[in-house]
Amino acid sequence: MYKIIGGDRREYGPATVEEVRQWIAEGRLSSQSLIKLEGTGEWKPLSAYPEFAGALAAQPRYSSAPSLDARSWPAEVPARRPEVGVGDCLAQSLGLLLNNLGLLLGATSLVWLIEMLCQSFRPAGMVYLVLHGVFYGGLSMVFLNRLRGRPASIGDVFGGFRHGFAQLLLAGFVSFLLAWLASACCMVVPGVYLFVAWLFGVPLVADRGLEFWSAMELSRRTVTRVWFHVFALFVLAFLPTLVMFIFMEVKITMAMLPVMQSALAPGAPPDLTRLMDMLAHAPQAAKITPAFLLAAKLVLLFNLPFGLGALLAAYESLFGTRPAPAP
């Protein structure tokens, strides 16, 4: 007979071998779930017990099954003390990437390539903007499964089209739209706050099967308590991409500044035609060539596996199974 620590940090059991195997098959336990033989005092990862090796190996690669207590888990997560170790998350991501380089680079390259192809055609780009949450839901599960010691494949990127499609679509699009609207209305700080606070909305839908708004709210309420830690992690994890983006924005702004000053000169009616034409040709005016744009996209391609791994390591720290507190 065994006792188990569930995703809500509560102790369950005693349970038989067959019951534990059933929970594994349902995706309610992973290789990292803590378990002990009844009557002993040592908690160990489930993967340490050879009698469950077969069940773990046969576990579905993409699972959105909730934890052992699906009703109480979303309410209990905010009651935990949130923990995000920036250095630990970066180190975990590096180790994960080194141990799964082909898989993670292949999975992120596939999503990157789909995005680049869609952005080459405006109608397809709008479709991808709506669907990006579905792709990143599947990509998140590739990383989470490897973080948990579960098998994963590049094809799992498309798992979001089979599991929770509508909720992933809504989580990705609504969070992007609201954060963008806040920034577009000259409210940059609220926009950045919402972007960071909702970072884990899509993974929560993919991993826990939550409804999109519940996932976004759970992410926001939890991240708010460690917002600066998550923000610092995001900046450090995606530093090469952010530096390239800021460099391009500065070049475009500096190239447009003289035209904006002349088009909006005091005492004269604004020359909106000239201003709109300059906006349309801003990249060329800033001497941002197609080769430069391609280089920027390649920086994102090679940065994405490490950055996403660091964020999902933080997700595990905030929302994953934790050891029971010492008595």
Q: Give the total of domains.
A: 3
Q: How much helix, percentage-wise, in residues?
A: 55-70%
Principal-axis shape equals elongated
Largest sheet: 4 strands, antiparallel
Strands, count:
4
Query: What ranges have pLDDT less than 50 throughout 5 or more consecutive residues?
Result: 62-71, 322-327
Q: What is the arithmetic mean of pLDDT?
A: 81
- What is the succession of H and E elements? EEHEEHHHHHHHHHHHHHH
Strand content: under 5%
Structural class: mainly alpha
Biggest sheet, strands in spatial order? 2-1-3-4
Gyration radius (Cα, Å) is 23 Å
Oligomer: single chain
Q: Termini separation (Å)? A: 22 Å
- The helix tally amounts to 15
Describe this structure in words.
With 327 residues, the protein is mostly helical. It has three domains: 58 residues, Dna Ligase, domain 1; 182 residues, no CATH class; 49 residues, no CATH class. The chain has 15 helices and four strands. The protein has a four-stranded antiparallel sheet. The two termini are 22 Å apart.
